[in-house]
Design a protein that fits this description.
By secondary structure, the chain is α+β, with helices and mostly antiparallel strands. Helix content is about 25%, strand content about 35%. Helix 1 runs parallel beside helix 6. The protein is elongated, with a radius of gyration of 19 Å. About 30% of the residues are buried.
Length: about 240
């Protein structure tokens, strides 16, 4: 495999690793192995530290494909807790409000999900990398500030209810570029009138790449670091 000419590595990102952690560690292994000081490595689509799943890591000239790869549809499996909110809309921050959900039924949840299929206006989470006056939104959020973020159109092609064990639901989401699943969790809670936040997220597909095509990140590093091992074709 010629990493300078370009390779696309299909990685299963672990929990608590940042997307930059994955890129940095792969770059480090490749630099040590090949003795190349300047070596391009990038990824096609950020995953939050609390999310796992498909990450496409591009090396060398394949980094030119990043924009094209990022434009592919993405599939997620998300676990959402209804009846409780957090400022970050996930587990990064503590619960700040709770509402009873005893009155809700599976049918209520299914009807609410139907309203989010298609092109919708979505406000990004304040704890995100969206820029406000040239600064990342999360920097304002961590200072306790809450500047207004403008909604933007995103497309959700499919939104399937996989399980409903209130107050927890699990959904499968097929969506286009720029969709925040944390914002979707927040908005589903608002639609149901009880609030909600994301408790787990796994990206299961990016374009044509499925999670079943991926190698978990630590194993990928072992493969790339072992000069005696034959690297499998599927990475």
């Amino acid at each position: 495999m010629d990493f300078v000419s370009g390779q696309i590595l299909k990685v299963d990102k672990p929990l608590h690793w940042t997307s930059f952690d994955v890129v940095k560690r792969i770059r480090g292994v490749l630099r040590r192995r090949h003795g190349i000081k300047r070596f391009k490595v990038g990824h096609a689509g950020t995953l939050d530290p609390l999310a796992t799943g498909v990450m496409l890591v591009c090396t060398g000239r394949a980094t030119k494909l990043i924009n094209e790869l990022q434009s592919g549809r993405k599939e997620y499996v998300a676990t959402i807790r209804l009846g409780a909110t957090t400022p970050s809309h996930d587990l990064e921050t503590a619960i700040d409000s709770e509402t009873p959900v005893d009155h809700l039924t599976r049918d209520d949840v299914s009807r609410a999900l139907e309203k989010f299929v298609g092109v919708i206006d979505q406000v990004p989470p304040i704890f995100s990398a969206v820029k406000i006056d040239g600064k990342r939104a999360y920097k304002f959020a961590r200072r306790g500030e809450a500047p207004e973020l403008k909604p933007k159109p995103v497309e959700i092609s499919e939104l399937e209810l996989l399980s409903c064990r209130l107050p927890e639901i699990k959904v499968r989401v097929l969506c286009g570029k720029g969709t925040y699943i944390r914002s979707l969790a927040r908005d589903i809670g608002l639609e149901l009138g009880v609030g909600a936040h994301l408790t787990a997220l796994r990206r299961t597909r990016v374009g044509e790449t499925s999670i079943y095509d991926c190698v978990d990140a630590p194993k990928m590093l072992d493969i790339l670091n072992d000069i005696d091992i034959e690297i499998p074709e599927n990475i």
